[in-house]
Write a structure and sequence with these properties.
heterodimer, A: 111 residues, mainly beta, six-stranded mixed β-sheet, five-stranded antiparallel β-sheet, B: 113 residues, four-stranded antiparallel β-sheet
Amino acid sequence: RKEVEQDPGPFNVPEGATVAFNCTYSNSASQSFFWYRQDCRKEPKLLMSVYSSGNEDGRFTAQLNRASQYISLLIRDSKLSDSATYLCVVNMNTGFQKLVFGTGTRLLVSP
Amino acid sequence: DVKVTQSSRYLVKRTGEKVFLECVQDMDHENMFWYRQDPGLGLRLIYFSYDVKMKEKGDIPEGYSVSREKKERFSLILESASTNQTSMYLCASSYDRGPRELFFGEGSRLTVL
């Protein structure tokens, strides 16, 4: 089983739609979780951290479900500019900063 | 803004050549990382460093070495390039040992013929 798994997509949605991605992780001791965004041929950039209580940043909401070992990202009112690959990142907490990246979920928002 | 600069965006090398990939960050970050990114495999950690002259192996260190002589600079070395090292290489840095945000460079796309 992969340490961090994501549906590669692509998720094709129209502008204005709501879309959600899940990401599962294998290590129940994992402590920190993040969503990064990567545009085509660009470097990944932090989108948001995921807290135990869940957190929201504008149209983006991240949730953590420790019991089922997954995190989610919800995007409301999708914009064309949201088209990108979304990387799930988990800190496996094995001492040093051991971040494990998922392979990413590709989102395509169409007019 | 944090700036992580990778010396070469695109390189084409031949099998057996020695390859240097340089990375410089301008925010006095303690930690620096080298990843490679391949389709279907995601980002995989090659080496990281949490201090000058310190280095630690990541998940896939075979065929690579690193050098960190100055805090701001972290170099990745392929002693003898092979075709299976054709990939996108991403350098990153972060503030401290905790699970902080990683700041990435734009990447170096290496093709080994």
